Amino acid sequence: MATFLEGVGKRTLNQLDYIGSLNIQWWTTMRAMGASLPFVGNRYRWKATVHQMLEIGVDALPMVALMAICTGFILALQGASELRRFGALHYVIELVAVGFTRELGPLLTAIAVSGRSGSAFAAEIGTMKVTEEIDSLRVMAFDPVEFVLAPKYLAALIVVPCLSVVSNVFGILAGGVFMYFSTHLGFVVYIRDVLTTITLHDVIAGFIKSLAFATIIATVGCLEGLRVRGGPDAVGRSTTSAVVRSTFLVIVADSIFTALFYFTGAY
Predict the structure, then answer these.
(1) Is the dihedral of CA 32, 60, 239, 106 positive or negative?
(2) Residue 193 needs a FRET pair 20 to 30 A away by CA distance; which of 184, 185, 218, 260 works?
(3) Is residue 132 packed enough to be buried (19+ CB in 10 Å), middle (13-18) or exposed (0-12)?
(4) What is the pTM of this model?
(5) What crossing angle do the helices spanning 200-226 and 105-113 adopt, rounded to 10°?
(6) Alpha-carbon distances of 261 from 35, 201, 202, 257, rounded to whole Å
(7) Residues with Cβ within 8 Å of residue 111, at least 6 apart in sequence
């Protein structure tokens, strides 16, 4: 019994230590992010931020769009199979539009970015840690947080909401394709109904979620890279841990935000 309690206590302390490290790193990076801003910051850091934006956003665009199209079509099919029994097939439009704007768009984007960019952050920083490049930056009087982490944070905060909008658009259009072939509903009428269904609260809720998800992915990916100890095999473990932890925390955060919006009447 004592061994079991010791194991539970050790795991609890490790998780609390991890959460504390996430908060400390987030605050430190937010303070250093000014150097990565355009015009007021260092132009070399801004170039690094743009490069990260291309890698996180532009390269992930086909994957996010394809995931949204498939999910939108599946959601419309599943909704129609039930709503057809009650003669309420037109409610498929509201299901797809609201479902993607509030929930699926930001969540699908976060999962895709976590698998692509969160793992890349951990692998890149972990490799720099193993090859002692992080220590070399400190020796040369460069702040590793400002030099390495801040551009990734800023790029994620800018790009992930944009990808969420792209996911919403493609997912809703996939629902429109289904409605056209199942009920011969014109695209103009479909888009009009979609715009009537979506409210400003839905858009703001999705935007807030996407910003939170971007913060989680960047924080976890960078922290896992900085915690690498050992050789190349440790980099692989940190990459796997970054994807698993960031995906888990994204889903937990999504549940918290959804419950918060529901009970406060935002939905």
Answers:
(1) positive
(2) 260
(3) exposed
(4) 0.89
(5) 20
(6) 34, 10, 10, 6
(7) 247, 250
- Please give the single-letter amino acid code of residue 234: A
Residues in the chain: 267
SS3 content of the chain, % helix, strand, coil (to 5): 90, 0, 10
How far, in Å, CA of 180 to CA of 158, rounded? 34
User: Which pLDDT does position 189 carry in this prediction?
Assistant: 85
Kindly tell me the sign of the dihedral angle through the C-alpha atoms of 254, 260, 266, 267.
Answer: positive
As given in the structure block, the two tokens for residue 132 are 């002692």
C-alpha closest to that of 242 among 91, 100, 144, 120:
120
Q: What's the pLDDT score for residue 169? A: 93
Using alpha carbons only, give the angle 179, 181, 184 rounded to the nearest 5 degrees: 75
Given a cut of 50, the residues of the chain with pLDDT beneath it are: none
Give the whole-angstrom CA distance, residue 34 versus residue 31: 7
Vertex 243, ends 70 and 208: CA angle to 5°? 65
Instruction: State residue 55's pLDDT score.
Output: 87
Q: Can you tell me the distance from the alpha carbon of 264 to that of 256, in angstroms, rounded to the nearest whole number?
A: 12
Distance of CA 110 to the CA centre of its chain: 3
